[in-house]
Amino acid sequence: MTSHLRSILISMLVALVTTAAVVVVTYLSFPVTGIRVEGATMYPESDAWDAVSEHASLLTLNEEKLERRVEANPWVQGAEVLEDSESGIVTVEVEERRPVLD
What we know:
3-stranded mixed beta sheet, cell membrane, Ubiquitin-like (UB roll), 41% helix, alpha+beta
């Protein structure tokens, strides 16, 4: 085996180990442990759970995408996503629309 090929294989091995370490740290150190929806009476909390992947991490959670998905519900006027890094809980603050005939 030439020294050039050996260098390439060692570099690939180091890259693989580094990638695996990053994945483990990301998903195990900062998991989403819960989702709380506040300010909603018509928006179901289960919809917020459905919008977050099963093994989500606080480091990889796309807050803007989650807000847009919540705001796609006709009852929701606006949403804000907050993360608590200590508890791992994601809070979705929802502002609902008012019914026209109330």
